[in-house]
Amino acid sequence: MTSEHTPDWVPAFGLQLRLTGVHFDAIRVRGVRGEAVLHHLATLTEGDPGPVIRELSGGRWNYFLLAPGTSKDFDWPPGATCFGPAARDQYVGVPAPYGNTFPLSWRCGPPRQGVFVDGELLHGVLMAQLVGEPE
Q: What highest taxon heads this organism's lineage (predicted)?
């Protein structure tokens, strides 16, 4: 991938914090549940769910990046934390496309300019998981 297709908010090397609600909104889902959500999204999108950042340590969070302002259109279920325009001063670490970016990495390859996770589809997958959970 050439740099002309990489959004300007993605650093050339290392990691940088980005204020949510400006370049993207983010929905954070923890560990195994986040991996399951990603698996379902990948299945529904023929392997191209959009940009997802994975944290390789700690909570092993997955951050699903939505177009800026999109997150406010949905009531996110428990276990899905919204980082968007309604939140104040929340940042998400963004890794470079390549190189040592531990503990963050791009789960589905580096992002492409103008491509985001479909908020409605993500919300549907999260809600379906919630309905399917045993009480």
A: Bacteria
Cβ atoms within 10 Å, residue 124: 15
Selection from 98, 92, 100, 121 nearest residue 111 by Cα: 98
Element holding 32 (H helix, E strand): helix 31-44
Choice between 87 and 107, residue whose per-residue pLDDT is larger: 107
Q: 70 pLDDT exceeds 70?
A: yes
Instruction: Read off the pLDDT of residues 7-55 as tens digits, 9 standing for 90 and up.
Output: 999 999 999 999 999 999 999 999 999 999 999 999 999 999 999 999 9
pTM value > 0.90: yes
Within 10 Å of residue 70's Cβ, how many Cβ atoms?
21
Q: Which residues contact 112 (CB under 8 A, 6 or more apart)?
A: 1, 5, 6, 7
Task: Tally Cβ neighbours within 10 Å of residue 93.
Answer: 15
From residue 28, alpha-carbon distances to 19, 56, 81, 85, 135 in Å are 14, 14, 5, 15, 23
Q: Is 47 helix (H, G, I), strand (E, B) or coil?
A: coil
Tokens standing for 102?
């531990």
